[in-house]
Amino acid sequence: MNLRKIFLTVLVGLTVYANSFAQYSSDLRINEVQAVNENGLEDQFGDHVPWIEIFNTAYNSINMQGLYLSNDPSNLTRYKLPYDTRFKIPQRSHLVFFCDGNSNKGNFHTNFQLDSEGVVYLVDGDGITIIDSVSYSFSKADISYGREDDGANKWIYFESGTPQQANIPAQSNHNAESFLEYDPIGIGMAIIAMFVVMSALVLSYLTFKYVSRLYRSDWKKKKVIAETNPEEEESESISGEVAAAIAMSLHIYVHQMHDLEDTIITIRKISKTYSPWSSKLYMLRPWPHKKN
User: Fold this and answer.
1) Lower CB density within 10 Å: C or N end of the chain?
2) Contacts of 154 (CB under 8 A, 6+ apart)
3) Residue range 214-244, pLDDT digits in tens
4) 3-172: CATH architecture
5) Is residue 32 within 8 Å of residue 52, measured between CB atoms?
6) Rounded to a whole number, what is the distance in angstroms from the first to the last CA of the chain?
7) pLDDT digits over 67-112, tens only?
């Protein structure tokens, strides 16, 4: 097996996994607009001002800082969203901006004001690419214009705004309620759950099986090469000439090393096993012997 195949397989898998968590500003949508607000949503100062809602259609968080909001097609970079950690929208969530023309109130207040009729633009960080836009027109106050469902293409008017909430009309059933009507016992839910689990198991089995085959083929190739070329293993062993040269070098080093040296220091081990510095035996003088 070629290790390059394994590396490419792992690289492709990591790329797909990383892209699933990548942030794309193109996943943002203008979800709802209310240009005439008299009794609706209040800002942090208790004022009723126009507002727009941005929805994150992705299943990962997206940071909006550096993007632009505008109501002027000739000036798409009218309000740039500054650095603010609160501009990070979680998955499938909403974020409301107040369009009162007074950006001194905070980062969520734009420097332009919405009229009863106009266009709102959400522009990418390059100041040119329009991510989303919507044209609106209001004939009375406190109604909002938004997507029928969060991120959907169809736009409708709401009798009352739904900021920071799902744009599902009150008369429509929730998805869970609709599912309950068609599957009151839960057989469909059980089948779907089993299908998801079995699909994951089958996918894992096929992945591990493919990787094991790659390793097995590589092992077989190495085994065949070793059986067909036994002389390669013999060539790795030390030849007789090299062994003889090593033995001769060791013999000369051991037996003729002193003949080549000028000075030799030989240290003999003392025969006494004790320290003689305090022995009185060495302090006695021998008796003189009379010579005849």
Assistant:
1) C
2) 147, 148
3) 777 777 777 677 667 655 555 556 677 888 8
4) Sandwich (2.60)
5) yes
6) 104
7) 999 999 999 999 999 988 899 999 999 999 999 999 999 999 999 9
pTM of the model: 0.54
Place of tokens 């030849």: 239
Amino acid at 4: R
Amino acid at 57: T
Q: Using the structure block, give the residue that is written with the tokens 């051991």.
A: 254
Per-domain residue ranges of the chain: 3-172, 173-229
How many beta carbons lie within 10 A of that of residue 55, not counting itself? 23
User: Rounded CA gap, 3 and 67, in Å?
Assistant: 44
Are 218 and 1 spatial neighbours (Cβ–Cβ below 8 Å)? yes
As given in the structure block, the two tokens for residue 85 are 């950690």
Q: Which two tokens stand for residue 110?
A: 């734009």
Minimum mean pLDDT range among 108-117, 171-180, 246-255: 171-180
Joined tokens for residue 92: 């499938």
